[in-house]
Write a structure and sequence with these properties.
The complex is a heterodimer of chains A (329) and B (318). Chain A has two domains: 224 residues, Rossmann fold; 88 residues, OB fold (Dihydrolipoamide Acetyltransferase, E2P) (Beta Barrel). Helices cover 28% and strands 32% of the residues of chain A. Chain A contains ten helices and 18 strands. Chain B has one domain: MetI-like fold (Orthogonal Bundle), CATH 1.10.3720.10. Classes of the chains: A alpha+beta (329), B mainly alpha (318). At the A-B interface, strand 6 and helix 3 of A face helix 11 and helix 12 of B. Chain B: This is ABC transporter permease. Chain B: It is a multi-pass membrane protein.
C-alpha cells in the first residue's frame, strides 16, 4: 500500500530538548491514523512537521512519495484542523471556509457555492453569514473542519480537535469524523492524548512517549499486546508486573501486562490479595489490590458482589492473559 | 466531641470598626465602589476638560472688532469666514498634509518594529524593545527637537555624512525639489517631516504592537496552511487584525502633528502650521476667536477621521 506520510529517522530538537527523537513512521494512504501520547510526547510536533510549520532537525519526511524538504506549509497539499480552530475572526463563516479557494484564485460565486456545499457536509447548512464568534464550540469545530476539507487535501491533520468539546458532543463528533473519513477516503492523521478516542476511531495508532514512537499497530494490537510497559500503562491503564514477579509466577523473567478486566475475583482462585481501595464509576467498580509487592487494579462489573475494603480476596487469571513485553525504551 | 473542633475560631468572623464596615459596604454594593472611583475622573474630564472645550467652541463664534481689537460677545460666523480666507486655508492644508504624511510613514516604519516585538521578542529582547521605544520619550521634547536641528543643519552631521560617502549630489537633488526642499534640511519641509516622524513614532509603535500581540500565531499558521504565502497572509489576515492598532496609533500621530507648534517653529521653513497660528492669534495678535476657530479645525478633522475609520470597520475587531 502506498505511504501517505513517511518519516525517516526524523528528529526535531529545541536546544537540548528532543521533541521528536529519530522517529520512523509509515502512514498509509486512506487510513485513519492516530498519534497517541501524553503532553510533551512529540505527537503534536510530529503533526506540525507534516504540515510544514516546523522543519526537521534531522531525517526526512516524504508525503506521497515526494520529499517535503524545504517545502513551506503553503505549498503542501495537506490541511490542518487546529486545536483552537484558528478561525479568522474578521471573516464570516463562508469567507473562512472559502479562504483557501480565494487564495487559489477561484471566483467569488464558485467558491461561495463550494463553501456552502462543504458546510452542508459538516451539517452546518446556511451558517455562512454568521461570524465565528456567534457559534458554539462544536459549530466552530465543524467550520474548521469544513475549511480544511474544502481544499480536498491529500492528508488531513487534526490536532486534538475534540479536546475543547464536552463529553457528549465529543462522542458524536468521533462518529462523524470516522464516517466522514470513510466516505471521503482522505488520509486522516489525528493527534490525541485520549486513548479511548484513539482506540475507537483509528485504523492504526502510534503511541508516543518522550519524543519516540513506542508502538505502532491496530487498536487491538496496542490494547491486547502492548510492546512496552509504557504502552500497557498509558493505553487503558493495564497492570504492569515487574520481571521479578513474573519469574516467580511463570519462570520467565520479563515484565508482563495484565488487563484489569482479565483479573477474576472469587473463591477457588490461586492467589491471595488485599482490597485497599474501591471506586465506583457506574458500569464497573474499580478495585485497588495489594498483591505481593505491587498494586493491581481490577474491575467488578455492576451487579456482582463487591468485596469490602481491607478484606482479603482470592484472585486469578488465565495464563494467556499475562502478556510478556520487552523492557521498552 | 473532638475538643480541637470546639476550640477553633468562629466560621463567620465579624470585625468591628468603621473601616472594616466601610469595606464590607463596598463589597456588598459594587456601585458605591464604582461611584467612589469614578467621581474624580468624571469631574476632571466632564467639567474641566470638556467644559473648557465647549468654552473654546463658544469663543470661536464671537469676533473681534477690527478697530478696537476687542472681542465682541455677539454670536456671529464672521470668524469662520476669516478662517476660510486663502492665507488661513493654506495653513490648514499644509498642516493636514504634513499630519497625513507623518501618519502614513510612521505606520510603515512602525510595522516591522511592532511585528518583531509582538512575534519574536521574548524576555530580555522584549525589555530592550520597550526601552528602545520609550527611552526617547523620557528626555525633553525640546532637547530632541534642537538636537534634530543640529543634525539637519547645513553644517550638521547628516550633510557631513552624505559628503563623506559621496552622496552629496543626492542630498542636493532632494533639496532641489520644489516646495518640500530648501537651503538645508533644517529649513525644509522634509526636515520638519523627519522630526515629526521621529518624535511621534513611539505613539504608533506601541498600539500597533499591542494589536499584533493579540493576533494568535495559529491564525497565521492557518492562513499558510490554506495556501497563502506570507504576503497574502499579511494582506488578508495580519493587516485587517492589526488595523485597530494602526488606527489607534494614527490617531496619536495625526492629532499630535495637527496640534504641534514647536517643531515647525524650530525646524522647517517659516510658514505657519495650525498650532503656530493658534499661538500667534491668542498671544500677540490678541484674536482669541480666530485662535479658537483654528483649534476647532483639528477637532473636526479628527471627528471625521474617526467616523471614517469606524465605517471602514477598524473597531470591529475590538
Amino acid at each position: 500500500m502506498q505511504s501517505a506520510v513517511l518519516f525517516k529517522a526524523v528528529s526535531r530538537l529545541y536546544g537540548d530538548v528532543r521533541a521528536v527523537d529519530a522517529v520512523d513512521l509509515d502512514v498509509r494512504a486512506g487510513e485513519f491514523f492516530a498519534m497517541l501520547g501524553p503532553s510533551g510526547s512529540g505527537k503534536t510536533t510530529s503533526l506540525r512537521l507534516i504540515a510544514g510549520f516546523e522543519l526537521p532537525t534531522a531525517g526526512e519526511i516524504e508525503i506521497f512519495g515526494e520529499s517535503a524538504k524545504g517545502v513551506p506549509p503553503y505549498r503542501r497539499n495537506v490541511n490542518t484542523v487546529f486545536q483552537d480552530y484558528a478561525l479568522f475572526p474578521h471573516m464570516s463563516v463562508r469567507d473562512n471556509v472559502a479562504y483557501g479557494l480565494m487564495i487559489a484564485g477561484m471566483g467569488k460565486k464558485q467558491r461561495h457555492a463550494k463553501a456552502e456545499e462543504t458546510l452542508e457536509l459538516v451539517r452546518l447548512p446556511g451558517y455562512g453569514d454568521r461570524a465565528p464568534s456567534a457559534l458554539s464550540g462544536g459549530q466552530r469545530q465543524r467550520v474548521a473542519l469544513a475549511r480544511a476539507l474544502v481544499n480536498q487535501p491529500k492528508v488531513l491533520l487534526l490536532d486534538e480537535p475534540l479536546g475543547a468539546l464536552d463529553l457528549k458532543l465529543r462522542e458524536q463528533m468521533q462518529e462523524e469524523l470516522k464516517s466522514l473519513q470513510q466516505s471521503l477516503g482522505i488520509t486522516f492523521i489525528f493527534v490525541t492524548h485520549d486513548q479511548g478516542e484513539a482506540l475507537s476511531m483509528a485504523d492504526r495508532v502510534a503511541v508516543f512517549n518522550q519524543g519516540q514512537v513506542q508502538q505502532v499497530g491496530t487498536p487491538e494490537e496496542i490494547y491486547q499486546r502492548p510492546d512496552t510497559p509504557f504502552v500497557a500503562d498509558f493505553v487503558g491503564s493495564s497492570n504492569v508486573l515487574p520481571a521479578e514477579l513474573v519469574r516467580e509466577l511463570t519462570g520467565v523473567a520479563a515484565p508482563a501486562s495484565l488487563r484489569p478486566e482479565a483479573i477474576r475475583i472469587g473463591q477457588g482462585e490461586a492467589h491471595a490479595a488485599t482490597v485497599n481501595s474501591l471506586s465506583y464509576t457506574g458500569a464497573v467498580t474499580k478495585l485497588g489490590l495489594q498483591f505481593r509487592q505491587i498494586q493491581l487494579s481490577a474491575l467488578v462489573p455492576a451487579g456482582m458482589p463487591v468485596p469490602e475494603r481491607g478484606t482479603s480476596v482470592a484472585i486469578g487469571w488465565d495464563r494467556t492473559a499475562l502478556h510478556m513485553m520487552g523492557q521498552g525504551k | 466531641m473532638n475538643p480541637s473542633v470546639t476550640a477553633s475560631p468562629a466560621v463567620l468572623q465579624r470585625k468591628p470598626g468603621l473601616l472594616a464596615r466601610f469595606s464590607d459596604l463596598l463589597w456588598r454594593r459594587p456601585t458605591v465602589l464604582l461611584a467612589v472611583l469614578l467621581a474624580p475622573p468624571v469631574l476632571w474630564l466632564g467639567v474641566i476638560y470638556l467644559g473648557s472645550l465647549f468654552a473654546l467652541l463658544a469663543q470661536s463664534f464671537f469676533a473681534i472688532d477690527e478697530f478696537t481689537g476687542l472681542v465682541q460677545y455677539e454670536w456671529t460666523l464672521k470668524t469662520y469666514g476669516e478662517l476660510l480666507r486663502p492665507v488661513n486655508l493654506d495653513i490648514i492644508t499644509r498642516t493636514v498634509t504634513m499630519a497625513a504624511c507623518v501618519t502614513v510613514f510612521a505606520a510603515i516604519v512602525a510595522f516591522p518594529i511592532a511585528y518583531f516585538a509582538a512575534r519574536y521578542a521574548r524576555g530580555r529582547w522584549k525589555a530592550v524593545f520597550y526601552l528602545g521605544v520609550m527611552l526617547p520619550l523620557w528626555s525633553s521634547y525640546l532637547v530632541k527637537v534642537y538636537a534634530w536641528k543640529l543634525i539637519l543643519a547645513k553644517e550638521g552631521i547628516l550633510t557631513w555624512g552624505f559628503s563623506k560617502i559621496g552622496l552629496m549630489p543626492l542630498l542636493e537633488l532632494i533639496l532641489a525639489i520644489p516646495v518640500i526642499g530648501g537651503n538645508s534640511l533644517s529649513v525644509s519641509y522634509i526636515g520638519t517631516f523627519l522630526v515629526f516622524l521621529y518624535v511621534w513614532l513611539p505613539f504608533m509603535i506601541l498600539p500597533m504592537q499591542a494589536a499584533l500581540e493579540r493576533v494568535p500565531v495559529s491564525l497565521l499558521e492557518a492562513s499558510a496552511d490554506q495556501g497563502a504565502n506570507p504576503s497574502e497572509t499579511l494582506r488578508h489576515v495580519l493587516l485587517p487584525l492589526a488595523l485597530p492598532g494602526v488606527v489607534a496609533g494614527s490617531i496619536f500621530t495625526f492629532s499630535l502633528t495637527l496640534g504641534d507648534y514647536i517643531i515647525p517653529q524650530i525646524v522647517g521653513s517659516s510658514r505657519l502650521f495650525i498650532g503656530q497660528a493658534v499661538y500667534a492669534h491668542q498671544g500677540t495678535a490678541g484674536n482669541i476667536p480666530l485662535a479658537a476657530a483654528f483649534t476647532v479645525v483639528p477637532v473636526v478633522i479628527m471627528g471625521f477621521y474617526l467616523w471614517g475609520a469606524k465605517r471602514m470597520g477598524a473597531f470591529d475587531a475590538l
